[in-house]
Amino acid sequence: MKPIRTSENIVSLxxxxxxxxxxxxxxxxxxNPLVITQNGKAAAVLLSPADFDLLTEQVxxxxxxxKGMEDVESGRVVPDxxxxxxx
Length: 87
Description:
Oligomer: single chain
Strand order of the largest sheet: 1-2-3
Order of helices and strands: EHHEEHH
C-alpha cells in the first residue's frame, strides 16, 4: 500500500459516486488507498482487497510480537532446557 497523496487520493462522495467503477479499477491497479470525504471531512478510506489483507496480516503480526514482548517482560517464559525436555 502506497502513501496517500492529497492531490490524487482524496475525493468527495459525490465524485466517487459518479466515477466509482473507474476509481475501483485505479485502486486495484495502483494500490493507492482512496480517502472519501463527506461534507469536507474524511468519511472513509477505500483499499484494494489485497492491501486490506496485507494490512490485517501486519496488525496480527505486530500484536503477536507485542504479546511476546509482554510475556518476556513479565517473566512468562520457559527456559530452553525445559522446552527441550518437554519436546
